[in-house]
Give the backbone structure.
Amino acid sequence: MNSGLHRLALIAAIVAFSVIVLGAFVRLSDAGLGCPDWPGCYGQLTWPVESEELREASQAFPDRPVETGKAWKEMAHRYLAGTLVLLVLAINILAWRSRPRQSGVRKLAAILLILIIFQAALGMWTVTLKLLPVIVLAHLMGGLATFGLLLWLTWKTREESPATAGATIVQLRPMILLGLAVLLVQLALGGWTSANYSALACPDFPTCQGQMWPDANYGDAFVLWREVGVDYEGGVLDLRSRVAIHMAHRIGALVTFIMLGILSIRLLRSNDGRRDGKILGALLLAQVALGIQNVVLQLPLINAVAHNGIGALLLAAMLWLSYRCMAGRS
């Protein structure tokens, strides 16, 4: 039964990654409120297309005119997320009907089910609370957590013996775990930047607003809970607050680059970690390049979506190193 569970977890992990990338596409195309209600779209299971449907939608939501180009993106994301919910449910059924060899598989499956249900609630609140930044951030981090746990389950349910870690990876365990923590903070900062529409608060690089250390309002920038009922689409913070968020993300990027860069070099210099070092280094360089291009090229959609996708792959790479060093230590 483990082989079936392994394949199902792998498929779910791929779908989870696709949900993350599609979610970034929806958010960055300003389609987060493409459907003003939930779980339907203007009261429909799909989205209004015919003239009669458009008329009824306009009457039901007079303050939110139908934009078909945004509505289908939002619904596509919901359909794919719904598919992921069903996959996680199937994983739980299979895990509890079988007797997995590895300990903790059922517990991990149950945690995933609880998380995915909470993710669905966050998806609803994202719409009903009109893109409240803290909810948008929680939804993003929940998606990354789901992706990470599905990867962990995939590795844990492999038929062959768990991946053995070489001496170098075991020795680097403290640095790997610290690097993972730093990366998670940076991903959260990126999510906060996006949720508050602060990606272009600094339109130049390496300076920001023509200065190395611009005037910024850090006090207001990181207030997590704000007024409910306000439409946060497009952001509500002033420029100084958005600059503060952007600069915090840049500083986090520098810390992450140094931390993971040193780890990558350490792995490259070893015989047993060279391949992992190459993968980590390539992803890190790609992520930094995409981040700089986001500023210089004024946030082109494909570039910004790729920045989100590579961030998720960086998380996968660090989780793989964490899994190996913890398995090698046990």
The chain has two domains: 1-160, 166-330. The mean pLDDT is 93. Residues 166-330 form one domain.
